[in-house]
Each structure stands twice: as structure tokens, then as C-alpha cells.
């Protein structure tokens, strides 16, 4: 394993240098008229507007930073194995790739590998392993506390940028932590993005615009409860049948998923509910938050595409999948707020959301509201995750959420289940790509 990783590290380092060198050469060239790459030209106008509004990024900057983040993700996987005593995490700092290193016997080798790959090294006090030890100590400490204290902590994750821990709690005041956690940040716990209630009365006529894409609205009916959510990524199951990957909490009758009593999914239109699209073949709300909608035979052609969009607009074509990296630019699509963009804030975190737990999830600085549940999160042109929970889902507009969270010293935050986690949980499930 070690020799294999070493070979990958050597190849990765060479590839990263080739990727980064042209960027430096362009920076020193004579001024020229700004041009848009062929790939950036394929981004939908609504996504380009969201990138400029929320992140002040051009299409090419967004694509370049998204690709660079995946280079960091690959380096991190290697570094955890080769340099465990020194490696302390990776992130993008406004487009600059950072590798954090702590003191240790393998630090010099880790620094050489990082700099050879074109990354910037930042010195920190604690390695990732050391921070994980602190998380284990916190768990042991919480086990000794009364429920009134222990139940306040809803999640713990690494804060790679500040080389510490972040605790998510029901209240940010009154929680007295042990001395070894005196520098930990405490932030509010997330709340579910509740699916919007909806009166579902199916009609027989087909809807205009046949294809259904990620971000489009749908209605879920089960157990006499109707909910309105956003479609996620189109995919195929292990038998090759079309499915859509959306949020598990959008299924109003999760216990019946995959049975003859499973919840039904319907298309939605401005004038009401459209024809049935399929049924929920699997719904998960324990550890992860996702569901699979299996297309009816008469509707399967509507899911045979790899698009993500603002409902009714031009699509973004999905080309693959990606892993979340702190600082990477990301955008989500949903029926309520369309495209909104931000950056990844935390990765690989376990957090309680209401009565459920999202394990190994990630959070972003994206605004998402009621009805955006189940929608897609992308980085570049790659699928990244499924929208699950938000700390501002109760507000009617993102503009209001921005003002309220600013006054409270916070910011909007969207929590998600990684798409690669969902694929690993379902052998044979494949995202549609171009």
C-alpha cells in the first residue's frame, strides 16, 4: 500500500506542477481582452449570475478553483497515509491551495511533497490525528456529563482552517467545556429544511417540457401526506433503470419505501400537480439523508439526462463526481431559491439535525430554504452532494436570512450528504454524466 501511494504521490506532484505553471505564466503576460474558456461558456446564465452575486467569481475562476480543490482532495488522501504525524488538513484560501503541517518526524517529507505539487504550506500546532484524539476525548467527557449538558452538543468536526474543533450546539451560551477544549468554537446546530406541504391532486395531461433535471420541483405523496421538494441527480440503479437521487426526508412514508405502499412522486407545474413520475424505492434517514425515486416505465425517458438547472432554464451538464474540500466553490439548485453559491465550510462531520444524525456530511455557506430539500450541490461541473438541512430554512427569502444571520454574527449554512457516500452505499448506482 505504501509503495503504491508513493507512486501516486510522485505522479500527482508532477501533474499538479503542470496544472499550476501555466497559471503563473498567464499572470505575467501582457494584458489581453478577457476570454471565456469553452467549458465556462457551457455554464447556464443563471449559474453564472449566482457565482458573480454570491462569490464574485467568473465562470473560469469557478471551474479552476473547483478543479484545484479536487487536486487537494487527492493529495490529502495520500498524505494521511504517508505523513500521518504531520498532516493537518487541506483547504482553498480564496483560490490558494493550502496544506497544513504540524511538527513531526515526517514533516520535511510532507512539506517537500506539498511544495513540489505547487501547494502552499502553512505551519500549525496540531496534526489531524491529534485533533481526532481531542474529538475522542470530548466524547469520553460527554459520557460523564448529565443529559442537560451532554444533549446540548449536536455535532463535532475538525476546523482545519483554524487548526481546532467546532462544536455544534442547541445553544452557544452556557456550555462549559473542559480545559483541553477551551479554544474550540461553538456554533448553532442546524435544523431540517422542512419539505413544503403540498396538496397533491394528480392530473392526466402531460406537462410541457418533457425532461426532468436536478433542481426541478416534484411532489411526494405517501400516507396521505403531500410534500414539495427538489429533484437531485439523475442516475441509473444496478439494473440500469433510471432513478433520481434526492433527500430521504422528502419521503413522507419512508418505512414503506420499496414496497407496494411506497410514496409516489409527481411532477409539479405552476398550475398544479402533474402526472406520476415514479415511486420511492429506497429512503434513508439514519446516518445519511437520501432517497432513490425509481422512474415509472412511462416516465423513464424524462430522467435520461445529466442536467442540473434552475427550474425551466438551461442546464449544467454533470461530468462526474467530486469530494468536498474546505474552501472549494459550490452551488446548489432548488425549486425555491434556484442557484445559490458559497464555499465548503466543514467536511467529514457528524451532526444531529432534529432527531436524526448526518454522518460524514459536509456544510457550505449556501442559503437554502423550504422546498430546496433534495436538490443538487455541484462544484465545477461535478456532482458533490444532496441538500439536507439548513440554519435558515425557516425564512421566506435569502435576503432576509442574510440580514438576520449577520445581526446574530452567523451566516447561512447548508448541510449535505456527499454524493460519493451515497454511491458507495448503493453498489451499481451510477450518476448520469456526459
Strand order in the largest sheet: 8-10-9-13-14-15-12-11-25
Number of domains: 3
Helix content: 10-25%
Strand content: 25-35%
Derived from helix and strand composition plus strand pairing, the structural class reads alpha+beta
- Low-pLDDT stretches: 1-34, 199-208
Architecture per CATH nomenclature, i.e. the level-2 architecture of the largest domain: Beta Barrel
Q: How much is the average pLDDT?
A: 84
Count of discrete alpha- or pi-helical segments spanning 4 or more residues: 8
User: What's the overall geometry?
Assistant: globular
Our measurement of the CA-to-CA distance between the termini, rounded to an integer number of angstroms, reads 32 Å
Q: Give the CATH topology of the largest domain.
A: Thrombin, subunit H
The CATH superfamily of the largest domain is identified as Trypsin-like serine proteases
* Number of strand segments: 25
Radius of gyration: 22 Å
Largest sheet: 9 strands, antiparallel
CATH class of the largest domain: Mainly Beta
Protein name: Trypsin
GO molecular function, one term: serine-type endopeptidase activity
InterPro entries: Peptidase_S1_PA, Peptidase_S1_PA_chymotrypsin, Streptogrisin_prodomain, Trypsin_dom, TRYPSIN_HIS
Pfam family, one: Trypsin
